[in-house]
Structures are given as structure tokens and as C-alpha cells.
Amino acid sequence: MHALTLKDGTVKQFTRMEIMGILNVTTDSFFAGSRTPDKEKALARAAQMIEEGAALIDVGGESTRPGAAPVSSDEEAARVCPVIEEIKASHPEILVSVDTYHAKTAAAACASGADIINDISGLTFDKDMAAAAAAAGVPVVIMHTGGRPDHMQDSPSYKDVVGEVHAFLRRQIEYAKTCGIEREKIIIDLGIGFGKNYLHNLTLLQHIDDFADLGVPQLLAVSRKSFIGTALSREDPKDRLAGTMAVTAYGARHGIEMVRVHDVAPNLDAARMTEVLG
To answer: Parallel, antiparallel, or unpaired for β 3-5 and 11-13?
Structure first.
């Protein structure tokens, strides 16, 4: 497994899969059970996930589900910054990431204590994002997406989805480095469900080992997504927990450092049981 250098210079060495809990300070995220637009409810939810074993909390103020309407960076920052500040004050040992593709939101969140920037666009939607991450000195998640959320699922097409996603991530890692982001502060995410159809998603997961040569930690974010629903004939996201746990176990078996989930306790159990089985 790979290591990650934090903004204070501390090196986080991954020796096992860590759980990142999803905290959506939104009203329209695709899984209704994850919506906590009220600050106090969001903080209570964060505390619950930490109690269940989350090592990271990912705070988002704008839904990036397919077809989602955009939110201004000012509104997004107003939603996430107070929550981030309070989580870090109450749980300084927990790493908090901000889920945003707006440089302005990212900068504000980092000033409020965020440890990681989780950018679904892989530093492509906002030309100032790489500079903002470099200035804040925090790690950044570079994710592959096939387009903006409002249109990314219209007609996703690839000649070689594994090769194209790999090439994008390699290219963006190099771009980040030229902008002052050290390789040791980069995480990759294959972008499952973002501008990809069912077969694209399965193919990427089946070739997840192909991305190890990029030499950075990997975040796996599949929780309750539609490809699980397709595979298991579970139309409602609330019925996709077991499928999510199966992918978490699969990721743990393949040495993935982090998994981003709505349900911390059962996914942590799945990861740890996989370790026991060897």
C-alpha cells in the first residue's frame, strides 16, 4: 500500500483499507439517507460515522449525481465550512476532505480545517483548483470523470476505458506536480459512475490492479451506485448495501487504501473480515 503526506508534513502510511464516511450537506444527493442539510444533523452524523470507525469524513455541499444542478461556490462554502470547522474542533485526529470542484470553495474549506481536497473533475473544471490545492499544501484526490454531472451520463463512450482512464490519471498527476502539488500528496479515484456505463464500471473494477503502477493511494467510491443496482436488480439505492460491501471487500483484497461509503460500520466489517481471510 502507498503512503500520503499531509499538510503538516506527517506521513500517513496505509497498512490496511481505511473508511471514508460520506457527509452530504445537501438536499438532493442521490441516496436520500445521506442528506443532512441541517448543520446539527450533519455534525451528529459525522460523530456517528467516527464512532463506527471512519478514519476520514468527506464533506460535500453540492450533489454530483447524474443530472444534478450546479450550486454556486459561495453557497457550497457556506454549507460545508462551518461543518468542517466543527468536526476538526471536536475530532482533530480525523482527516476531513472537502468534496468540491470549485477552487474558491476548496480554499475556504482548507482555511476552515479541511485536510484533503476531493475533486471529481481531476483538476479540470476549475483552472484555479491546482493552484488552490498547492497553496493550501493539502493532498488532493484526482478523479476521472467523463463530463460534468448534468450531462456525463448522456452517452458515455470509450475505445479502451481502462487505458483512457489510466492515461488521464497519469497526465493529471504530472499536471498537478507542475502546479506545485507533490506526488506524495496525490490520491487517485477511477470515477466509477461518472461518465461511464455499466460495462465501463465493471471493466475498471476488474482491472483495478492496472492502476497500482501510478504509485499513489487509491480511493474507491462506489457506495450504493447504480451499477450495483443494475448488477443485482436493486432499483432503489437503499437496497444496495450488500452489493456495496461486496465491492469494499473486493477493494480490500486488491490493496485499495480508502473506500468512500455511506455506511461505515458494515463496510468496515467487510474490509476487516477480508483481511482475516487473507
So the answer is: antiparallel
Residue that the C-alpha cell 465550512 belongs to:
81
Active-site residue, 16 included: no
Contact between 52 and 265 under an 8 Å Cβ cutoff? The reply is: yes
Residue 27 CA to residue 42 CA, distance in Å, equals: 12
Model confidence at 65, in pLDDT bands (50, 70, 90)?
Answer: low
Using CB atoms within 10 Å of the CB of residue 154, give its burial: 0 to 12 exposed, 13 to 18 middle, 19+ buried: exposed
What is the per-residue pLDDT across 158-172, written as a single tens digit (0 to 9) for each?
999 999 999 999 999
Of residues 35, 65, 88, 260, which has the active-site annotation? Answer: 260
Verify whether residue 170 is a known catalytic residue.
no
Q: Are 91 and 44 in contact (CB under 8 A)?
A: no
Region of residue 119 (left: phi > 0; alpha: psi -120 to 50; beta: else): beta
The percentage of residues in the chain with a pLDDT greater than 90, rounded to a whole number, is 85
Q: What is the value of pTM for the model shown?
A: 0.93
Please say if the pLDDT value at position 129 is more than 90: yes
Number of Cβ within a 10 Å radius of residue 228: 24
Please report the beta strands in 55-179, taking only residues with DSSP state E, as ranges in sequence order. 56-60, 95-99, 116-119, 140-143
> Could you tell me how many residues make up the chain?
278
Q: Is the pLDDT of residue 24 over 70?
A: yes
Nearest alpha-carbon partner for 102 in 60, 57, 144: 60
Q: Which of 104, 225, 234, 272 is catalytic?
A: 225
- For residue 96, the cross-strand partners are 57
